[in-house]
C-alpha cells in the first residue's frame, strides 16, 4: 500500500510536470510563421565609449569594457526594410536606454528617478520607427549603475510587434513554466503541511521545503521577461526577485537541519539568521537609497559559499560518525552546491551567462524539490501511519473495548482533574451503577450472554443518564457517571427514564433479565474533603440500593 502511495506522489509531482515541460519545449521550437518573419539586426554595429575612448565594430550580443554609470553608444544604419510594418526590438538588463534617430531622441527608458534602488530593472523594448527611416542613423545609448551589467549589450531585431512578441514567448516560456511549477509545488506542499497539521501530524521539513520552493518560484518568475506582460513594473519585479533569492538559503538550511537532525544544528540556524539579518539590513539601506540590492550581490555570494562549505563539512562529519543522512538527500544537496558553484563562476567570467534564460542552478533547484518531495512523502506516510497507531493505542488505553465507554483510567484522570478544581465547580453529582447477578448470568447462560448484558446495559446508560454526563465502565460489572452543573430533579428524571428502558428491555427478552443498582451522591464541601470522599458516599449508596433490591426480590 505504501509503495502505491509513493507511486502516486511520483506521478503527480514528477512525471506529469516533466511531460508538460517536454510538451511545451516542443511547442517552443516550432517553425516561425513566414508572414511574420523576424529580421536579425545584430551584426556590424559600431560602438563608442566616451568614458574610455574605445571604439570599434562588433557583432551582438557582446560585453564591452565600460565603467558603471558611463554610457556606451552603438550606431548603425537603418536597413532598407519596409519600416512602416516593422518594429525594433531589444532587451536590457539593469540598464537605462536611449534611442536616437539621426541624433533626434525617439525613446527614453529608465531616466526618471526611482523611488527604491538605482536600476530600472530588466525590460524589453518595442520601438516603432517613422516611415521613410531607411538609411537613417540609429543610435542606442546604454548605461548601468552596476559593473555586472555595464557594457552588456543584447542583440537587436526587426519584425512585426506580434512576431517579436511570439518569439519572446517561445524563448522564455520554458523558463516561466519551470518557475511557475516550482511556485505551484511550493503552494501544494504548504497546503499538504496545513492539512497534516490539522491532523496533528507536524513535519517541519515539509514546511521548509514548501517555503524554499515558493521563494525559488518567486525568484525565477520575477526574473522572467514574460512576467512584464502582466506586471509592467520592472523595478518592482526586480526587487521581488532579489529579496526572494536572498531569502532562499534560509528555508534550505532549516530543511537540511530538519532532515539530518544534527546535535550541532546551531551552525545551520546561525547561518539562516545571518541571511535574515543580511536581507533586513539590505532592504533598509535600499529604502534609504544608500545601496541597491544588486550592489550587495557579492556579499550574498560569499555568505552562500560559506553555507555550502558548512553543509558539505557537516555531511562529511555525520558520515564519519556513522549517522549518514539518506543518500538521495545528500546527492541532491551536493548537486545543488555543484551547480551553484558552476553558475557563480560563469556569472563572473562569462557575459553570455547573464543573458541566458535558465541557469544550471535553477534547473537543479527544481530537481532538488521534486526529488525531496518523493523522499518527504514517504516520511509523511510513515509519520501518518505512526500517528494512527499512536491514536489507536491511546484510544485503547482510555476506552473499554467491550462497551466502547471510557474506562477506569479515564475515570480516575477525570476525578483527579475535578479534585484540583472543586472550588470552581457549581455542582458535581456522581452516580455509581452495578449490573446485578452478572456472575449468575455468566454461570447459567455463558459468558457471551454476560458480555451482551454489559453491552446492552452500557447502551441504556449512554442514552439516558449519559445525556447529562460522561459514562465510564470502572470495573467488571460497575459503571459510573459524572454529572456537572445539573439539577438533582433533572438527574432523577433521567434515572427514571433509565429504568423505563430496562423494563422495556426485559419485556422483549425472556432470559436473562437486566437489573441495575445505583447510588448517587452530590458533592458537599462540609461532608467531602475531596472528590474521593464523594466516590465513597456514592458507592455506599449503590450497595444500599443493591441490598434493597435483593430484599424486594425475596419478599416478592
Return the average pLDDT rounded to an integer.
Answer: 83
Q: In percent terms, what proportion of residues is strand?
A: 5-15%
Could you describe the largest sheet, including whether it forms a barrel?
6 strands, antiparallel
What distance separates the N and C termini?
Answer: 63 Å
Strands of the widest sheet, in order across it, are 3-2-5-10-7-8
Q: State the CATH architecture of the largest domain.
A: Up-down Bundle
Please count the beta strands (DSSP E, at least 2 residues each): 16
Order of helices and strands: HEEEEEEEEEEEEHHHHHHHHHEHHEEHEH
Large-scale geometry = elongated
**Percentage of residues assigned to helices:** 40-55%
Tally of separate helices: 14
- Cα-atom Rg, whole angstroms? 39 Å
CATH C-level of the largest domain: Mainly Alpha
Q: Which consecutive residue ranges, at least 5 long each, have pLDDT under 50? A: 1-13, 22-35, 552-556
Number of domain units: 3
Content-based structural category: alpha+beta
Give me the CATH fold name of the largest domain: Rhopdopsin 7-helix transmembrane proteins
